[in-house]
Amino acid sequence: MAKEVLEPRWLLLYIPVYIYGIWDSYRTSVDLNKVFILSERENSDFINFQITSLEINYLDKRKPWVAAMWSFFMPGTGQLYIHRIVVAAFIVTWAVVIVYYSHFLQAVHYLVLGDIGYANDIVNKEWLMFLPSVYFFSMYDAYVNTVENNKLFDNEQSNFLKKKYQDRNFRLPLNPEKRDR
């Protein structure tokens, strides 16, 4: 089925975007890992509340399955749940464009009415093939970023509590038997 509806122009357009996406993801991951290692060694502070012209961004703990669930219902809403407004706007826009041009909702409507032949005729399969990519990317991205935000929240909370409430002379009793000797 995919070979029948595959348009070479779309394929040639999609291949460079796909390769760029892989390369950019790898490059960004390596850079962020280096920044994480440096910030962890220096125990540097993290900006946990920021207001910009695009969004109000604050760090709090969220449930990853809720973010994935929202993205399952509508791609991009999971990113809204974790305050990634720009990414959410991008995903929602693309999801709407793909659903509109694929006539997906009209096909579902006629499918529910029992007119399978007309539903099959009305759907644009070239556009419909983009829909699983947007859905699964949105769900995966929302879940993974919620987990990472939760790790940042735990780390920031731990640093805050140590800095504000832990006595400098406090020693953690790691091995009480050795200390007593």
Reconstruct the topology from this structure.
Blueprint: H1 2-5, H2 8-42, E1 49-51, E2 56-58, H3 64-73, H4 77-81, H5 85-102, H6 104-113, H7 116-122, H8 125-128, H9 131-165, H10 176-180
Antiparallel strand pairs: 1-2
Q: What's the main sheet like? A: 2 strands, antiparallel
Mean pLDDT: 83
Provide a count of the helices. Answer: 10
| Strand order across the largest sheet | 1-2
- Percent strand equals under 5%
User: Are there runs of 5+ residues with pLDDT below 50, and where?
Assistant: none
Number of strands: 2
What form results from the Cα inertia axes?
A: elongated
| N-to-C span | 75 Å
Helix content range: over 70%
Radius of gyration: 24 Å
Structural class: mainly alpha
Secondary-structure element pattern, one letter each: HHEEHHHHHHHH
